Amino acid sequence: MHISARTTVAAAALALATAGIAAAPAFADASAAQEVPGAVSGTLNTDEEARVHQEVGDAPKVEMYYHGEKIDSRSDDLGGAQVCAEVSQDGTMECFDDQEEANSVLAERAPTPESREGAAVQAASKAASKAAPKAAPKAARAAALRSSWLDCPKSWVCLWQDADFKGRRLQWPTYDTAKTRHLDQYSPSFRDKASSAYVNRPQRGVELYDFRSGMPDPHLFLGAGYTRYPNFTKISYAYGGNWNDKADAIKF
Ligand SMILES: [Ca+2]
């Protein structure tokens, strides 16, 4: 693991990650999730930048399937799908109409046992609420009101197109080691679209990158520990402004 001694951002990120781990025991459930209005934002040093560029530089386009067919790369709405999830270590994504469809498929086909379990738990809780007709009206109201960050299953990392965990989203499972994907690998691209995020796991934070030419690349560290980031417009960006619709790559 490479840790730069030179940047205070790396040190701060590490501190945040450690705090996240300490604050969230391994068995914490979604109710323990904490909202983090800001996050650790800074720029990469030369070494870090070279490493990230190498990781995503030659990466091939990622296939995205929706109901068995590849999504048209020109689509600006994921072909109508609401959720796309990585189902293979090669980056392949499958896309779904809604939460229910996503969880029922991912419970079987997600690429790690933890990510299958996360989807299965959500699918089961949905089925349980359906099977309790007495509670149904109340449950339906609660479902309509509840924050959609709860849609991101445990052991997954989710990025939404809109603030407050709304709109179409991409989600990634947790592997043994971190992986980096260029958001432009997706077809249609998810570059410059992310507006909110949820890191639904106890350990290992997530890093977003914005690739700039002629200046150090800004990066944004999202700590682990079931943390959620509802609005990237509230997170300041290295060269002024904010992180909304800026992310070009994700390390998860
Ligand atoms: Ca960008």
Automatic annotation (TrEMBL):
It holds the Pfam family Inhibitor_I36. This is Peptidase inhibitor family I36 protein. Residues 1-28 form the signal peptide. Keywords: Signal.
